[in-house]
Amino acid sequence: MNTIYLKTKQTFLLVAFILFGFSTAWAGAFSVHFTNSNNEPLANASVQYYHSGWKTLGSTNSNGMISADIAELSGNVQFRLSYNGGTNYKTQNISTNPVVDFQTTLATVKLLDVAGNEIASDWVQFYSSGWKTFGSNHTTTSMEVLPGTYQFRIGLNGGTNYKTQNIVADPMVVFHTTIATVKLLDIAGNEIASDWVQFYSSGWK
Q1: What ranges make up the beta strands (E) of the chain?
Q2: Residue 196: pLDDT above 50?
Q3: For a tag site, which of 36, 70, 79, 197 has the least CB within 10 Å?
Q4: What's the CA gap between 120 and 88, in Å, rounded?
Q5: Are strands 172-176 and 105-112 parallel, antiparallel or unpaired?
Q6: CB of 65 within 8 A of CB of 59?
C-alpha cells in the first residue's frame, strides 16, 4: 500500500491507495483543523476525542492542525476542542470526512456614553472557566473566542456591569452608561452648592 500526504490551504489530507487501481479508506486516520474568523490557523488548542471515555489527542500546531491514525476509530467520532477557557464539541464521520474543522468567532465589547460615543472602560472581562481579561482589557476591544454564550463584565469608576450574550447570534456586546445628577436645594427650592458630594461604588468616591 502506498501512502500520499497532501497539504492544501494548510489542511492535511491522508489518501491511501491500493496498487492495481483498487482503493480503500484508511480507518482511523483524521486531522483536526482550527482557524480564526479570518481562516488563519490557531495553535495551542487542546483537542480530545471520545472512545470509551475522553482521551487527549494533543494540541494544534502552528498550522492549526493535529493529525492522528487510531486504528480503533471509524465512523462517527465525537471531538472537543478547548481554547481560551472555552470548549466546543463536534461529532463527525471520519470515514467519509477525515478533516474536522473548528473555528473561532470575533467578538467585540464596547461601552457607549449617553450620547452614543464610544468610551474606554477601566477594564473588561469574560467568563470562561473563570473570569479572564478580554482583548486589550479596555473598551472598545475585540477577541477571537470559541462560539457560544458568555458572560461579560466591565468596570468604570468603581462600578461593574454584567451582560450575558450568545456571540454567534450577535458578536457585538454593547454596554451603556447613564448620566446621574446630584443637586442640593434650599428650603425655597433654589439650587445651592454643597461642600462635597460622593457616591459609593467599591468604596466612597
Answers
A1: 2-8, 11-17, 29-35, 46-50, 54-59, 65-69, 76-83, 86-93, 99-103, 105-112, 118-119, 123-127, 131-133, 141-145, 149-156, 159-166, 172-176, 184-185, 191-192
A2: yes
A3: 197
A4: 31
A5: parallel
A6: no
Residues 58 and 46: their CA atoms lie apart, in Å, by 6
Q: What is the DSSP letter of 146?
A: -
Whether residue 205 is predicted with pLDDT greater than 50 in this model: the reply is: yes
Residue with cell 464521520: 93
Task: Count Cβ atoms within 10 A of the Cβ of residue 159 and give its class: 0-12 exposed, 13-18 middle, 19 or more buried.
Answer: middle
The position carrying cell 493535529 is: 66
The secondary structure of residue 41, as a DSSP letter, is B
- What digits encode the pLDDT tens for the residues 168-193? 999 999 999 999 999 999 999 999 99
DSSP string, 53-71: SEEEEEE--TTSEEEEE-T
Query: What is the average pLDDT across 45-67?
Result: 97
How many whole angstroms separate alpha carbon 126 and alpha carbon 131? 6
Give SS3 for 133. strand
- Cβ proximity of 94 and 74 under 8 Å: yes
